[in-house]
Specification:
By secondary structure, this protein is of the alpha+beta class. Helix content is 36%, strand content 23%. A hairpin with a 2-residue loop joins strand 10 and strand 11. Bound molecules: zinc ion.
Length: 363
C-alpha cells in the first residue's frame, strides 16, 4: 500500500515546500525524464520511482489535496504557491480543525480513496496530459504537427508473408490455425522519426519501428494444396496517413506422409502383416486420418489383398461425400527370429505339401 501522507512529496520531487505550480511541473518533468520506465527498460525501481513522482505531482498540483497534505505534515505555507491556494489551505486547515474535534476526519480513509483516484489516473490521464510533451517541447510539437498535416502522403503498409505447415489430414479436411504474426509498426513515441530532441528514441532505440506480436486465428480451407497462398486482407503492416494496411499471406506447406496416399476421396495405404496373421487371421490396428481403427484380417489372407474401411476417407472440396480407406496387406517376414521360431518353420516345411508355384504358366 502506498500512503503518500507518510512520505515527503516535496523531497520526492526535489523541491521546497513553497514551490509554485510551475516549479512543481518543471521538477516533475525533470524527474520523469530520468525515471520513466521506458528509459530504464521497465526496471522495477524505475516503475516504483515513476509512480512515486507521479503521485507526488498529482497531489501537489491539486490545491485541495496539497493543502490537506501540508496540514497533516505540518508544512508551513509562508510564501504560498498561489493566491487562491493560500485561502484554500486556510479553509482546509480550519475544516480539519473542526473536523478533528468531531472526530470524523479520518486521514487514513482519505488516503484510501485518494489512492484509488491515483491508480486510475496516474498512468492514463496524467501520462497522456502531462507527459505528452515530456520528450519533445510543446513549441516543437505544435510546429511539427502543423507542417506534418500538410505535407504527409499516404503510406501503404507492407504485406507480411508467413509459412504455415499443416498435416495432410488438415489439408484434406480443412482446419483452423492460430498464427503468430510479427508486425512492425511505426514507433508511437517518436512517430518513426528515430530521434527525439537529438537523442535516440528510448522506445524504439532509434530504429523508428516497434515490433508487435499479434495472434490471429485463420481458417485453412478444405482441400488446400501444397504451396497454396492464402490472403488475409488488412492483416499486414499498418498503413499511415490514410494509406492502406498490407495483407497477410499464408504459404501452405503440407507435411509429408509416406503412409497415406490419396485418390479422389479415398485414402490408400499398405499395411504389413506377419505370416501367421496371414494364415490364421487377426484383428489389427490400422491408422486412419481420424486415429486408429480395428480391422479384421480373415484367415488365408495373401499379400496384395485389399480391404475397405468404409467412410474413413476424406470429403474433398465441394463434394461432401466421404470416401473410404483402402487397405492393401503385405506379408512381412520379421528380420530376426528366435531359434524356436526357426525350428517351427522347419517343421512346417517338412509337413507342408503345397506348391504355390505349380500353376505359374498354366493360367
Ligand atoms: Zn521511436
Amino acid at each position: 500500500m502506498n500512503q503518500y501522507y507518510q512520505k515527503d512529496l516535496y523531497a520526492i520531487l526535489g523541491i521546497e515546500p513553497d514551490a509554485d505550480e510551475a516549479q512543481i511541473k518543471s521538477a516533475y518533468r525533470k524527474q520523469a525524464r530520468r525515471w520513466h520506465p521506458d528509459v530504464n527498460d521497465n526496471s522495477q525501481e524505475s516503475i516504483l520511482r515513476f509512480k512515486e513522482i507521479t503521485e507526488a505531482y498529482e497531489v501537489l498540483t491539486d490545491e485541495q489535496r496539497r493543502s490537506q497534505y501540508d496540514i497533516l505534515k505540518g508544512f508551513n505555507f509562508k510564501s504560498s504557491y498561489s493566491s487562491t491556494s493560500k485561502t484554500q489551505a486556510k479553509k482546509a486547515y480550519s475544516q480539519s480543525e473542526s473536523a478533528q474535534t468531531k472526530t470524523d476526519f479520518k486521514p487514513e480513509q482519505k488516503t484510501k480513496t485518494e489512492e484509488k483516484h491515483h491508480d486510475k489516473s496516474s498512468f492514463s490521464q496524467v501520462f497522456e496530459n502531462i507527459l505528452d510533451g515530456l520528450f519533445t517541447n510543446d513549441s516543437q510539437k505544435n510546429s511539427r504537427t502543423k507542417t506534418e498535416k500538410k505535407k504527409l502522403k499516404p503510406e501503404n503498409g507492407r504485406d507480411i508473408n508467413l509459412n504455415v505447415t499443416i498435416k495432410i489430414s488438415e489439408a484434406i479436411s480443412g482446419t483452423n490455425r492460430t498464427v503468430n504474426v510479427l508486425h512492425s509498426e511505426r514507433c508511437p513515441k517518436c512517430e518513426g522519426r528515430r530521434f527525439i530532441n537529438g537523442a535516440k528514441c528510448p522506445l524504439c532505440k532509434g530504429s523508428g519501428e516497434v515490433s508487435i506480436h499479434k495472434k490471429l486465428n485463420v481458417k485453412i480451407p478444405v482441400g488446400v494444396k501444397k504451396g497454396a497462398k492464402i490472403r488475409i486482407a488488412n492483416e499486414g503492416n499498418k498503413g499511415y496517413n490514410g494509406g492502406k494496411s498490407g495483407d497477410l499471406y499464408l504459404f501452405i506447406d503440407i507435411e509429408e506422409s509416406s503412409f497415406f496416399k490419396y485418390e479422389g476421396n479415398n485414402v490408400l495405404c499398405e499395411i504389413p502383416i506377419t505370416p501367421f496373421e496371414a494364415v490364421l487371421g487377426a484383428n489389427i490396428e490400422v491408422p486412419t486420418l481420424c486415429g486408429n481403427v480395428s480391422m479384421k484380417i480373415p484367415p488365408y489372407t495373401s499379400t496384395g489383398q485389399k480391404f475397405r474401411l468404409s467412410q474413413q476417407g476424406t470429403s474433398n472440396g465441394k463434394n461432401n461425400k466421404k470416401g473410404d480407406q483402402i487397405v492393401t496387406v503385405k506379408i512381412v517376414v520379421p528380420k530376426e527370429m528366435t531359434a524356436k521360431e526357426i525350428e517351427l518353420y522347419e517343421q512346417l516345411k517338412l509337413i507342408s505339401k503345397h506348391n504355390v508355384r505349380e500353376n505359374l504358366l498354366n493360367d
